[in-house]
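Study both lines:
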Amino acid sequence: MGNINYVSSTVKILEEPRQTFSKDSVLITQVRAQLSSIRDGNSQSFVTLIFRGKLGQSVKTYYHTNDFLIIEGYISLKNKKERALNLWPFKSVEITVFKVYPFLLGSNSIKHPSELNN
């Protein structure tokens, strides 16, 4: 039986990727995304996607807001330091992504290789 924390899903990128460096100088790219849902209704699931190293740089270069991706990675719950309206602790879902596949890309994501150096 496989690891129950491993997830594969289709996501929609909600904002442009942000990049920082970890304490050990590894490039970290974070993206807010929405999980795709087949249920009817208004249920929306938002997650933070975490990419490390060269994969993060590729995500920053090739993918933009409103693109759809298929991702594979490990899911975890993180306690937020801020509380929503100070009523209860706020937890967020993070997925550390190890594999990413383009699914539906907007016209601003499709670049000719000669345009990548600009």
Observations:
- The two ends are 47 Å apart (CA to CA).
- The chain has one domain: 6-115.
- The chain has a mean pLDDT of 82.
